[in-house]
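We give the entry.
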Amino acid sequence: MDYEEYIVKNLDRLPGKPKLIGQQYYTRGGILDILAQYDDGGLLVIEVKPSVVNIWACCQLLRYCGAIIEQLQILGSDKMVKGILIGKTLDKYAGLAFKALPKDRFQFISLEELMKET
């Protein structure tokens, strides 16, 4: 299964029900999986990992969020940028990293939870 495509088609299952801006979106920090926008104009960076999420995936998410923040600053915008990492589970180091990140800005969602039938 292509998890990224599933998430794109089911963005309304994510908190805040963001709308798609782009997939495989190019930034100065690299190509992020999914960029979405909330009704209030805030942006959401989504990184998808089909297996156990490691610390490097956390760094990747932060790098992409930083690149989007930089682009917004160039445009003179102060929109909020949030990040969601979606994967099977967090390994112990990624779990520790998420404990240090602000919960109102960064979130981990398990693929299993996201794909549960409601």
Notes: The longest strand covers residues 19-27. The helical segments are 3-9, 55-74, 92-100, 111-115. The chain has a mean pLDDT of 94.
